[in-house]
Structures are given as structure tokens and as C-alpha cells.
Design goal:
This protein has about 130 residues and is of the alpha+beta class. It is built from 5 helices and 5 strands. Helices cover about 40% and strands about 20% of the residues.
Length: about 130
């Protein structure tokens, strides 16, 4: 992620690096408040505004994905796959990307049938991972 930000001309401040480190450490959903809490252990002066701005920047560049958390709360997870296909454990909040080969064909058919120009999509399945079952 750090190299990607540099490649796009963004500065790597200590606060921004704290957010990057938090997001790279796990494969779970994190709310901005959780990123702030964990990030302050890395850089004590990390602020919520920086967390929000950095998460949105990382989302725009495709490094993290916005995911619907419990009760509709916005959370973020590290992006690993090109398209947003996630399995989300509702107990431990683990996020697993999964391939969905037939979805692109369905999207293309839907676009032709409706005249829509589909620019992005997100498929999210919620349930319990094997460890939480």
C-alpha cells in the first residue's frame, strides 16, 4: 500500500503510515473508530479526520474496500481481489475474498438488457466462518 501511495504521488506521513499498518495487519472488518484506536498505539497523535481521509484514499486507489458491517455500519477491509466479493463472518468479523466467475457474465447481460453502464459491483455474503460455527 505504501508503495502504491508513493507511486500516485501521495506523501507518507507518520499518521498515514499508522493507518496503512493497521489495515495491512489483518483480514477483518475495521470501523474507522477501530482503525483510530489501533492506529494510536502506533502513532499517538493520529486523528479521526486523517483516518477517514486515508481510508477513502485507500478505497479510491483500490487498496481497501468499504464493507457493510454489523447493523449497517461502514467498515473497511483490505482489498485482495479485483472485484468486491466477500464472505463476512458476523461473529469474529473475518473477511474472506472469494472468486465469482459467473458474475461478470450476469453483469454484462444485465447491462445489455437494461441499458445501464455498470461501473462497479460488490457482492457480500454474511454468515459464520468455520471457526465460529
Amino acid at each position: 500500500m505504501a508503495q502504491g501511495l508513493r507511486a500516485h504521488g501521495y506523501k507518507l506521513t507518520a499518521q498515514r503510515l499508522a493507518v496503512l499498518q493497521v489495515m495491512q495487519e489483518g483480514n477483518e472488518l475495521l470501523t474507522p473508530a477501530e482503525v483510530l484506536d489501533r492506529g494510536r498505539k502506533i502513532h499517538s497523535r493520529l486523528g479521526m479526520t486523517t483516518v477517514y481521509r486515508t481510508l477513502e484514499l485507500l478505497r479510491e486507489l483500490g487498496f481497501v474496500r468499504r464493507v457493510h458491517g454489523a447493523e449497517g455500519c461502514r467498515a473497511y477491509a483490505q482489498a485482495r481481489e479485483q472485484d468486491g466479493h466477500h464472505l463476512v463472518c458476523q461473529a469474529c468479523r473475518r473477511v474472506v475474498d472469494f472468486p465469482c466467475s459467473g458474475l461478470n457474465e450476469l453483469i454484462e447481460q444485465t447491462a445489455r438488457r437494461t441499458g445501464f453502464s455498470v461501473e462497479s459491483h460488490l457482492l457480500e455474503l454474511a454468515g459464520l466462518c468455520p471457526a465460529c460455527q
